[in-house]
Amino acid sequence: MKTIIKNCIALALTAGLLPGCDKFLDERPSKTSSLVVTTTSQLNALLNDYEQFYAESNNTAILSTDDYGLTTPIYDARQGIFSPITVQYNTWDTAYLMDDPGQSFWSSEYRKIFTANMVLQYADKVTGPDEDKANLKADAHLIRAYSYFQLANTFTLPYSSSKGDEPGLPLKLTIAFDEPVARAPLSKVYEQIEADLAEAMKIKMPLIQNGKPRHWRANTAAVNGFAARYYLAMNKYTDALKYANQALQEYSMLVDYNTQMRYGRDEVVTINPGPNAQTVTLKYPYTHDNQEDFTDMIGWPEFLYFRMLDYGTWWYMPSTALMNLYDQAHDLRYQYHYVEGYSYDRGMIDPAYNYPGYIFFFKDRIPSGPTTAEMLLIKAEAQARTDDFSGAMTTLNSLRVKRMTPGPWVNLTATGKDDAIKKVLEERRREMPFVHRWYDVRRYNNNDDPNDDVEMSKTFYPYTLSSVLSTQPVKTYSLPKHSRRFAAPLPRTEMISSNGAIQQNTY
């Protein structure tokens, strides 16, 4: 943890050009040579550096659910592109993942927390308008709440009143080196998240400014959107409905996949090279076009808060169970986001092995911050769980009409509460694969409704720290409802750097 703090201080105080986008930023953040924070403008420039905040490289969320579809036939088709670490996340390992050298999610979220703490420390000491200071503090509280929520949903057990004394997270609330780093109880972590959320609610900055959404910074719609997500996770459906409605009242823009989506750059791949070689054209959505700049991502109209799930190996591999949830003939999300033959792009060309990939922004990023689509899904679920199943279907269908080709298949109906909940949860999975499934399974298994429980299992080869034993018989791996493995292993480096103050999860 001390290493993270040192790196963050260097990052925050070193002179550097903060990135901007002329199309969406009124003012491009500029280079500063000052090592002393004296103005609100400097703190704003720090928080405008969206490249340091947007990415969430959470391998647990990506690889550890039934949305991810790595099977032995796919693995055997080209073993070299799948590391043992991928297999370990896929099968809920506890023995080896703590040594994953690429496990950056923990440290990157604590860097965001450090920056938030820095803003909170300086906001009342610098010069600038009082309103600017108040918004900076609210912004920092949202960053801190959001990052602690993401970390808790990955590295700790799902919260309930009976688990309050379970190990939580190190609570860093200052930039001091000597602040304790031992894990606070889980109850204290959620108390801190809720306290930060309450402070973030004081934000006065609207999402739309000068006619454009400013979603890379905290805003009123973003705070309400995160509050809706938080209270849904806590099974407080009345509160979740309240804040989802408030977010939607401010901003309700949806992309109509019938008229506003299109294909972008195609890629031509040669398979089975040699005398029987063929060329295959892979069709990608337009959101795939711009990898190096942020035009597509910043411009996505549904964002309330700009955050992205980011997977460095570039293959969100959908399971057959996930793909079978779609009406593949009429659901435009399947048409645009599931790229047929994507396995060829990943090198499975000799011999050719055909399997799709899920693509949103380029090949590695999917929206994970609150969006208008998520707010509609939260609203629909909260309505269904509070016995308004007819209202839930109306809300759900207002999303589906923007995602499906016109026809009788668009509007869903429900026979009652349980049927409505089932349909809403299936729509969540179709709309937000990979991004929310890990968090959703955790909460489904820890609420009072036994009908939505999910027990995941996968069949795969055994493995060691460094290799997959593909010549040995396969075995079944499972994640039961109350498994302690719903808390992912913490990085061993954090336990070492803390001199043992940070303790590993027990399994």
From TrEMBL:
Arranged from A to Z, the UniProt key words for this protein are: Cell outer membrane, Membrane, Signal
Where is this protein chiefly located?
Answer: membrane
Question: What Pfam families has UniProt attached to this entry?
Answer: SusD-like_3 (PF14322), SusD_RagB (PF07980)
**Extent of the signal sequence:** none
The record places domain SusD-like N-terminal at 23-232
Kindly list the places in or outside the cell where this protein is found, as annotated in its UniProt entry. Answer: Cell outer membrane
Per its UniProt record, what InterPro entries does this chain match? SusD-like_N (IPR033985), SusD_RagB_dom (IPR012944), TPR-like_helical_dom_sf (IPR011990)
The chain positions of domain RagB/SusD read 373-506
Source organism, top-level taxon: Bacteria
Query: SUPFAM superfamilies recorded for this chain?
Result: TPR-like
This protein's GO CC annotations: cell outer membrane
Please indicate if the UniProt record lists Membrane as a keyword: yes
What protein family is recorded? Belongs to the SusD family.
Instruction: Tell me what this protein is called.
Output: SusD family protein
**Upper taxonomic classification of the species?**
Bacteria, Pseudomonadati, Bacteroidota, Chitinophagia, Chitinophagales
